[in-house]
Design a protein that fits this description.
Number of strands: 0
Largest sheet: none
Shape: globular
Length: 163
Protein backbone atom coordinates (compact mmCIF):
# COMPACT_ATOMS: atom_id res chain seq x y z
CA UNK A 1 0.00 0.00 0.00
CA UNK A 2 2.90 2.35 0.76
CA UNK A 3 4.21 1.94 -2.78
CA UNK A 4 0.84 3.02 -4.19
CA UNK A 5 0.62 6.03 -1.93
CA UNK A 6 4.10 7.17 -2.97
CA UNK A 7 2.96 7.42 -6.58
CA UNK A 8 -0.20 9.38 -5.96
CA UNK A 9 -3.03 9.98 -3.54
CA UNK A 10 -5.87 7.62 -4.45
CA UNK A 11 -8.20 9.54 -2.12
CA UNK A 12 -8.31 12.27 -4.79
CA UNK A 13 -10.39 9.96 -7.01
CA UNK A 14 -14.02 11.06 -6.96
CA UNK A 15 -15.22 8.18 -9.15
CA UNK A 16 -16.03 10.17 -12.30
CA UNK A 17 -15.33 7.12 -14.49
CA UNK A 18 -13.10 8.89 -17.04
CA UNK A 19 -10.49 6.14 -16.63
CA UNK A 20 -13.01 3.42 -17.38
CA UNK A 21 -14.59 5.35 -20.26
CA UNK A 22 -11.19 5.76 -21.93
CA UNK A 23 -9.99 2.19 -21.25
CA UNK A 24 -9.93 -0.12 -24.31
CA UNK A 25 -9.76 -3.20 -22.08
CA UNK A 26 -12.91 -2.14 -20.19
CA UNK A 27 -14.70 -1.79 -23.54
CA UNK A 28 -14.19 -5.48 -24.31
CA UNK A 29 -13.98 -7.05 -20.84
CA UNK A 30 -16.56 -6.21 -18.20
CA UNK A 31 -14.37 -7.75 -15.47
CA UNK A 32 -11.90 -4.89 -15.84
CA UNK A 33 -13.15 -1.59 -14.47
CA UNK A 34 -10.41 0.83 -13.38
CA UNK A 35 -12.88 3.03 -11.48
CA UNK A 36 -14.17 0.06 -9.47
CA UNK A 37 -10.64 -1.19 -8.74
CA UNK A 38 -9.64 2.24 -7.37
CA UNK A 39 -12.87 2.34 -5.30
CA UNK A 40 -12.07 -1.11 -3.85
CA UNK A 41 -8.59 0.09 -3.03
CA UNK A 42 -9.97 3.21 -1.33
CA UNK A 43 -12.47 1.26 0.77
CA UNK A 44 -10.65 -2.04 1.42
CA UNK A 45 -7.07 -0.81 1.63
CA UNK A 46 -5.47 -3.62 -0.39
CA UNK A 47 -6.57 -5.84 -3.22
CA UNK A 48 -3.44 -7.79 -4.11
CA UNK A 49 -5.45 -10.94 -4.81
CA UNK A 50 -7.59 -9.12 -7.40
CA UNK A 51 -6.66 -10.62 -10.76
CA UNK A 52 -8.33 -7.77 -12.65
CA UNK A 53 -5.22 -5.56 -12.30
CA UNK A 54 -3.41 -8.03 -14.56
CA UNK A 55 -5.84 -7.26 -17.38
CA UNK A 56 -4.56 -3.69 -17.74
CA UNK A 57 -2.79 -3.28 -21.09
CA UNK A 58 -0.73 -0.33 -19.82
CA UNK A 59 -1.94 1.87 -22.69
CA UNK A 60 -1.90 4.96 -20.42
CA UNK A 61 -5.25 6.28 -21.70
CA UNK A 62 -6.43 6.54 -18.08
CA UNK A 63 -3.92 9.35 -17.54
CA UNK A 64 -6.63 11.75 -18.69
CA UNK A 65 -7.92 11.56 -15.09
CA UNK A 66 -9.07 15.07 -14.07
CA UNK A 67 -7.69 14.46 -10.55
CA UNK A 68 -4.32 13.05 -11.74
CA UNK A 69 -4.84 9.72 -9.94
CA UNK A 70 -2.97 7.66 -12.61
CA UNK A 71 -4.71 4.26 -12.37
CA UNK A 72 -2.10 2.68 -14.69
CA UNK A 73 0.62 3.40 -12.11
CA UNK A 74 -1.59 2.04 -9.34
CA UNK A 75 -2.09 -1.22 -11.28
CA UNK A 76 1.61 -1.50 -12.03
CA UNK A 77 2.43 -1.10 -8.35
CA UNK A 78 -0.28 -3.56 -7.31
CA UNK A 79 1.31 -6.10 -9.67
CA UNK A 80 4.74 -5.49 -8.12
CA UNK A 81 3.31 -5.84 -4.60
CA UNK A 82 1.50 -9.07 -5.52
CA UNK A 83 4.72 -10.61 -6.82
CA UNK A 84 6.76 -9.36 -3.84
CA UNK A 85 4.19 -10.75 -1.38
CA UNK A 86 3.99 -14.15 -3.07
CA UNK A 87 0.36 -13.85 -4.15
CA UNK A 88 -0.49 -16.91 -6.21
CA UNK A 89 -2.81 -15.96 -9.06
CA UNK A 90 -2.84 -16.09 -12.85
CA UNK A 91 -0.96 -12.80 -13.23
CA UNK A 92 1.90 -13.68 -10.90
CA UNK A 93 2.19 -17.15 -12.46
CA UNK A 94 2.37 -15.60 -15.92
CA UNK A 95 5.15 -13.19 -14.88
CA UNK A 96 7.10 -15.95 -13.12
CA UNK A 97 6.88 -18.26 -16.16
CA UNK A 98 7.96 -15.43 -18.47
CA UNK A 99 10.94 -14.51 -16.26
CA UNK A 100 12.07 -18.14 -15.90
CA UNK A 101 12.07 -18.71 -19.67
CA UNK A 102 13.80 -15.44 -20.57
CA UNK A 103 16.35 -15.94 -17.80
CA UNK A 104 17.15 -19.46 -19.03
CA UNK A 105 17.22 -18.86 -22.80
CA UNK A 106 18.05 -15.15 -23.02
CA UNK A 107 14.82 -14.56 -24.95
CA UNK A 108 11.19 -15.63 -24.97
CA UNK A 109 10.74 -19.16 -26.27
CA UNK A 110 6.96 -19.35 -26.74
CA UNK A 111 6.64 -23.12 -26.49
CA UNK A 112 8.65 -23.25 -23.24
CA UNK A 113 6.65 -20.32 -21.87
CA UNK A 114 3.34 -22.02 -22.65
CA UNK A 115 4.52 -25.25 -21.06
CA UNK A 116 5.73 -23.47 -17.89
CA UNK A 117 2.60 -21.37 -17.61
CA UNK A 118 -0.10 -23.84 -18.66
CA UNK A 119 1.57 -27.23 -18.38
CA UNK A 120 2.90 -29.73 -20.89
CA UNK A 121 -0.50 -30.34 -22.48
CA UNK A 122 -0.89 -26.64 -23.34
CA UNK A 123 0.33 -27.12 -26.90
CA UNK A 124 -2.65 -29.39 -27.53
CA UNK A 125 -4.90 -26.38 -26.89
CA UNK A 126 -3.70 -24.64 -30.04
CA UNK A 127 -5.90 -25.14 -33.07
CA UNK A 128 -3.83 -26.85 -35.80
CA UNK A 129 -4.11 -23.83 -38.12
CA UNK A 130 -2.72 -21.52 -35.42
CA UNK A 131 0.05 -24.00 -34.53
CA UNK A 132 1.03 -24.22 -38.20
CA UNK A 133 1.21 -20.42 -38.55
CA UNK A 134 3.30 -20.18 -35.37
CA UNK A 135 5.62 -22.96 -36.59
CA UNK A 136 5.97 -21.28 -40.00
CA UNK A 137 6.83 -17.97 -38.28
CA UNK A 138 9.47 -19.71 -36.18
CA UNK A 139 7.51 -19.36 -32.92
CA UNK A 140 7.13 -23.10 -32.33
CA UNK A 141 10.14 -25.34 -32.37
CA UNK A 142 10.92 -28.75 -30.98
CA UNK A 143 14.32 -27.53 -29.85
CA UNK A 144 14.94 -24.36 -27.91
CA UNK A 145 18.35 -22.76 -28.28
CA UNK A 146 19.83 -20.23 -25.93
CA UNK A 147 20.88 -16.92 -27.40
CA UNK A 148 24.54 -15.91 -27.42
CA UNK A 149 23.81 -13.43 -24.65
CA UNK A 150 21.78 -15.81 -22.42
CA UNK A 151 24.35 -15.66 -19.61
CA UNK A 152 24.36 -11.84 -19.74
CA UNK A 153 20.56 -11.78 -19.54
CA UNK A 154 20.72 -14.13 -16.54
CA UNK A 155 23.20 -11.77 -14.84
CA UNK A 156 20.85 -8.84 -15.50
CA UNK A 157 18.06 -10.68 -13.71
CA UNK A 158 20.38 -11.36 -10.78
CA UNK A 159 21.43 -7.69 -10.61
CA UNK A 160 17.76 -6.64 -10.65
CA UNK A 161 16.93 -9.05 -7.85
CA UNK A 162 15.16 -11.76 -9.85
CA UNK A 163 17.36 -14.70 -8.87
Amino acid sequence: MELIMKVNDISRCYQCGTCTGDCPVAWVNSEFNPRRIVLNLQTNGHILENEAVWLCSMCFKCLRCPRNVKPVEIFSNLRKLAIANGVDNVGTKLVKAFVEVVKEYGRLVETRFMMKFMGFDSLKLLPPSVAFKMWKAGKISLSAKKTECAEEVKKLFEVCGHV
